[in-house]
Design goal:
Distance between the termini: 80 Å
Oligomer: single chain
Helix content: 25-40%
């Protein structure tokens, strides 16, 4: 037969387990609130420093800087232009897990848990200040955010500490309520939570009400700080947006030729000849898109072989002779058949003219510098061959794209555009500095990460329609797509079915050798499972190779293929 003591011990153990689980859950919540506090306070401090100094952007940027090329290639291939969003979400998930773990740690070791938060702050501070464009002040948001978060965690962990209460003496009942909280239940007059029998002392329930009040206050204050920080940053960025809206691009002294009427066949599924700004690919390392005020922007040209250093404002560029050209850009991360290629009508100043005025000569004419190192406001460095920029091609410092000032995502207020070179060696966005040097003296950002120093765009072609695994009906099916070999031009495109003979496709009118060219072949489709392949030949007579290689170190090669089923 059970005694009162047996029942008390049974229910006391159950209540104790429930209380421990409850405290652990609230401890994890306290860690999440502390992490939220760190981010919100850092957001507020970043408003006084600069948006790029925020902890998520700083840690994410550090991750990107240290990501091996193969991993970066995987991210771009699988997540496309959403790779930065995936990275940021991943950082937030890891932060949440870390915060919960630290919260549980603080349940038993308050000081150690608070110290762990400070360690995380140090990581963010070092990441921010240690980036290529890092400034000493960039460490402040992470450091201050972590310091406040450590205090919040210490406070909340204290609210989870149970109060101790002495048990009644042997033979007495414990009907009283211990300090710090009410007993969960009593059985036959013996206290289950808050004391045990036989004169021992046990923890009472923690102050749930006090914890909820403190946690709610901390979360609300943190949210307020975060919203205030966002508001301040938005007001600061409004100046850059206003400067863009106030720009009226002058008419170019050298306008682009009209696009031939036959350059863009009206075929369903075929890419448009000109890529709208909203659809133009974006591949870069900027987690926070720089917002530069055009009125404050300056460009410095200096370095080896520069006899007359130059500093230019945005208005200085607009007063110069502007050139307008249709140019196709291609990212080196573009896989065979990939989407990271597009054509726009750019307007800008000839870079070769600016360099010549600064006294620069290409190596072929005795110049001492063979590399241009372009630096972006976000710290990116792009190394471009001087010879190619000054060989007569339309290398531009672009200020406009498709009839409007550059969008912020694409480099406002000024970016480089060099036909025939992959973007990572030519297309510096948000440019603010041009230094003349040599390839032997300096390795730019991507070269340090195992990409080639020189990277002319390789001849490539892509099938846009039919799409992979499409089911076109038997009969005449238009197989159409685009081909590109910038600064060489496309001479021929061929298509074959099931590794049969090659058929010459009909080329659309050529808008220029610096743009892609559209093509179509009328396929007499028959019932069955088929593989379509395409290859292009440029105007030098070189036909793209069938050898499949990845994007590293200087661009992918191979024939694009599409599998279809004709019912």
């Amino acid at each position: 037969m059970s005694t009162d003591r047996d029942v008390s011990q049974k229910y006391g153990a159950t209540g104790s387990r429930r209380s421990r689980w409850a405290r652990a859950a609230f401890a994890a919540l306290s860690g999440l609130i502390a992490g939220f506090t760190a981010l919100c306070v850092a957001e507020l401090v970043a408003a006084a420093v600069r948006p790029e100094a925020g902890p998520v952007a700083a840690v994410g940027g550090a991750v990107i800087d240290r990501t091996p090329p193969a991993v970066k290639d995987f991210a771009v291939r699988n997540f496309g232009t959403n790779d930065k969003l995936v990275l940021q979400l991943g950082i937030l998930v890891l932060l949440a897990l870390f915060a919960m773990a630290v919260g549980i740690l603080a349940l038993r070791h308050r000081r150690t848990g608070a110290a762990a938060v400070l360690v995380f702050g140090v990581v963010g501070a070092v990441s921010a200040a240690g980036r290529p464009e890092g400034r000493p002040g960039d460490a402040l948001p992470s450091a201050v955010g972590a310091l406040v978060a450590a205090g919040v965690l210490y406070l909340l962990a204290g609210r989870l500490a149970p109060a101790a209460a002495p048990s009644p003496a042997a033979g007495e009942t414990g009907g009283g309520v211990p300090d710090g909280g009410a007993p969960d239940s009593t059985v036959q007059g013996s206290t289950v939570q808050g004391s045990t029998v036989q004169g021992s002392t046990v923890p009472s329930a923690f102050d749930r009400r006090g914890f909820v009040i403190a946690a709610t206050a901390a979360a609300a204050a943190s949210a307020g700080a975060g919203l205030l920080g966002r508001g301040l940053q938005a007001s600061q960025l409004a100046g850059a947006a206003a400067s863009r809206e106030d720009i009226t691009l002058p008419p170019p002294a050298s306008p682009a030729r009209p696009i031939p009427s036959g350059a863009g066949p009206d075929i369903r599924g075929l890419s448009s000849f000109v890529t709208p700004n909203k659809d133009f690919y974006r591949v870069d390392t900027a987690l926070v898109v720089p917002r530069v005020d055009a009125d404050r922007w300056r460009l410095r040209i200096h370095g080896k072989g520069v006899t007359r250093p130059v500093t230019l404002s945005f208005q200085d560029l607009l007063k110069r002779e502007l050139v307008e050209r249709d140019i196709t850009l291609t990212c080196v991360s573009n896989q065979v058949g990939g989407p990271y290629v597009g054509t726009a009508r750019w307007i800008g100043v000839r870079l070769a003219t600016l360099l010549s005025e600064a006294g620069v000569r290409p190596p072929s004419k005795g110049g001492s510098a063979d590399q241009i190192v372009a630096r972006s406001v976000d710290g990116m460095t792009i190394g471009t061959p001087v010879e190619e920029v000054m060989d007569g091609r339309d290398a531009l410092l672009a200020v406009g794209m498709n009839g409007e000032p550059l969008p912020f995502d694409h480099g406002f207020p000024v970016r480089m555009v060099v036909p025939g070179l992959y973007g990572y060696v030519s297309a510096c966005k948000w440019i603010q500095d041009i230094e003349l040097t040599t390839f032997d003296a300096y390795d730019a950002y991507w070269v340090k990460r195992d990409w080639s120093r020189r990277a002319p765009i390789k001849t490539q072609s892509r099938i846009d329609t039919p799409r992979p695994f499409a089911a076109p009906r038997a009969g005449t099916v238009p197989v159409a797509g685009v081909a590109w070999a910038q600064h060489r031009g496309i001479a021929r495109v061929e298509v074959r079915v099931d590794e049969g003979e090659w058929h010459t496709a009909k080329l659309a009118a050529e808008a220029g050798r610096d743009t892609w060219r559209q093509w179509v072949w009328e396929w007499p489709a028959t019932t069955g499972h088929h593989t379509l392949q395409v290859r292009a030949t440029d105007r030098t007579g070189a036909t793209q190779t069938d050898k499949r290689v990845g994007t590293v170190p200087d661009g992918a090669t191979g024939w694009h293929s599409v599998v279809v089923d004709v019912p």
